[in-house]
Amino acid sequence: MSSLTILLALFLAPLLTFLLYRRIFSPKRSPLPQIPYLEFPPQEDNSFSRYLHDTRSLMRRGYNEYTKKGLPFAMFNHVDFNSPLVILPLKYLEEVRSASTGRLSFPLSLERSTIINDIGGPRMTEEAIRVVRLDVTRCLAGKVGIGGERMERGLVGIMGGKCAEAYKRYMPECKDWTPVNAYQFMLKVFSQVTARTLVGPELCDSKEWLDIILGFTNAAFKASHGVREKYHPLLRWTAKYLDKDVKDVYRIRKRAGELLGTILEKRKQEEKEGIIYEDGIQWLISAYKAAGKELSADQLAQDEFIITIASIHSSSATALSCLYDLMDRREIMEEIKEEIGKVRKEFGVEGSEGWTRQSLAGLKLMDSFMKESQRIHPLQQLTMQRMVVREEGFLFKDGLRLPRYTQISMPNEMIGLDEELHGEDAKEFDAKRWLRKREETGEGSRYHFASISDDMLAFGSGMHACPGRFLAQEVIKLMFVELLEEFEVRYPEGVEKRPGDILKHHNIMPNVGVELLFREQKKS
Q1: Residue 466 marked in a binding site
Q2: Between 1.20.1600.10, 1.10.357.10, 1.10.630.10, 1.10.3720.10, what CATH number should domain 120-380+419-454+458-520 receive?
Q3: Which of 145, 386, 481, 493 is the most buried (most CB within 10 A)?
Q4: Who contacts 71 (Cβ-Cβ below 8 Å, separation ≥6)?
Q5: What pTM value is reported for the model?
């Protein structure tokens, strides 16, 4: 058989299979007879494409008919056509969050939902999770060392300085109203600010590294969506030979390994000389050493990518969503500006580098606003994603048994809008909702943006609650301080309020295509 014939076969097989598959596809009935299965009515469109953009109506129906009564329901699973997605009510929350990874696995669920193994993307490792959960969070409150030298500023102050630098670098001159894609701008700012924490001084100001991070993130997202849409699961292995976006993932990953490999060798040598850094690379070196594992340049690149991807896009999208909500509530924007001034005076905060974790915590109205924006406009309909691992399945205390490989989630968006959980005004935006709860209960730490609770599952719960939520909280606040002190912002002509969100399967994104108008504030 000629090489041309082989290439044609490799190209045509997935294409023909995909076309045939889509032509005859209709979501299958649930193989879980004990759980109600929701789909669109027979007289309506029940195609794959409808599940792409209209899952919210099914989620609302399922929540009202089953979840609020303490019952699970199942629906079409876009990442596994043969096994439905099971949506669990809150009564199962404690059992889910306390289950070990060997019984209910978040990493396996993530790999299945992102098809990361099929596109050459990074897999979640215990070492990467440890770095974000322990090392990053620890350093937010402490001093940071560069090359063994302890610094007077904490990590928050360093990030504040990087935030100001990023604004100067990426915001165009705005003497008059200037159109800026706020999402792309926030991506760049967040990438540069967090780079100091995650890769350290060698690469945090490198344009090439920033291009690698943003390029890899975009390529991985495009590849994940594209391969899922274009390739049957049995033929996804061909994507690395045929798909441009997947090839981009491998190309960028290789270059990242080359850059990081040089630093890795340098750090190993410096470690012998007693020079220790406080950043993601050093923490990963230590984590692998503690686990008795060898850390290669490629593995270092993959761990840096998984940490970065998990933070940059979600945090930038959250910040954009908050900005839209803030622009629709100008009176609250002015109150937050006043709060920033008061906190600066109270804590003696000077410039962008003077912020600490304690002084940022004083921005209580800003924090409450951010949390309310997240409640009303979450990035995911579902959280608490897990996959049943054991061959015998998973048995809940009430007798519900789920078979192996079943994927489960909890209805984050609907929980956030539930009047029984959040009051009669649950569907209304109340910027001071969480500030009042702090004052009424006296529990200041319970209701801040990064806190987790049974009635707010945006960050998940239990051992797999988002480990980077504290870093995201501080960076978003620093970004808003810089924005509100230095710029005015408004919608472009023809846009009067928050643009509609973008829904895809169970993901929700603020509209990232709108160019907002920015203007430098006139200093008196």
Answers
A1: yes
A2: 1.10.630.10
A3: 386
A4: 36, 89
A5: 0.90
